[in-house]
Amino acid sequence: MAVREGLFLAKFYHFPVSILETSSPSVISSLSNSVTIHGNVSFIVNDIKALIFYVGICKCQASSVQEDSLAHRLASIAFSSVQEWLWLDTSPSLSFSVV
Fold this sequence. Notes:
Layout: H1 2-12, E1 19-22, H2 25-32, H3 41-55, E2 59-62, H4 69-80
Parallel strand pairs: 1-2
Helix pairs in contact: 1-3
């Protein structure tokens, strides 16, 4: 769901994105596999595949949770914030060490 929502945001705000990265190898496998997926999850996978084409993603890759720790920290800051931010041209100055 996070991949799908991220791609929807990229489409809506016309963000240039060329690489899709997730900490879920099963998501990458589902997207790379040409086997037809059945059931409720097929709608989500089909949405993601269509958004990948629309946004212009040229590479899908899996990363470890440790490699993805910066994104997790930014997400936790965003969810705990009482202010609303919309970063269109510049992002806030945040510095994190990735271990």
